[in-house]
Predict the structure.
Amino acid sequence: EVQLVESGGGLVQAGGSLRLSCATSGFPSNPYAVGWFHEVPGKEREQVSCISSSDGRTYYPDSVKGRLTISRDSAKNTVYLQMNNLKPEDTGVYYCAADSFYDVCPIPDPNYWGQGTQVTVSS
């Protein structure tokens, strides 16, 4: 029943911007955090942002601070990732993930994952 669907990926030039969306459905009413993960071939997925439901607290690793902004529209059950000043190293697949029994950022072990959306940043 739980489902997460990412969208908004695409091809942009370095320095450009994208806005990713994560539509969620089927979650119970209890609060849950949602995180965005970046996957590059040969490396494990890195959590690049996270937002909690109860207090809106956010998490960003140092590598993306100032460039990525996560937000949540509770009425639409959608989480967004605004990506600015993109760099070639940002290229990869972005997944959103959540844990219906966990509402703390970062999320150490998400229970649910989306299918991913491709982001390509050209030089």
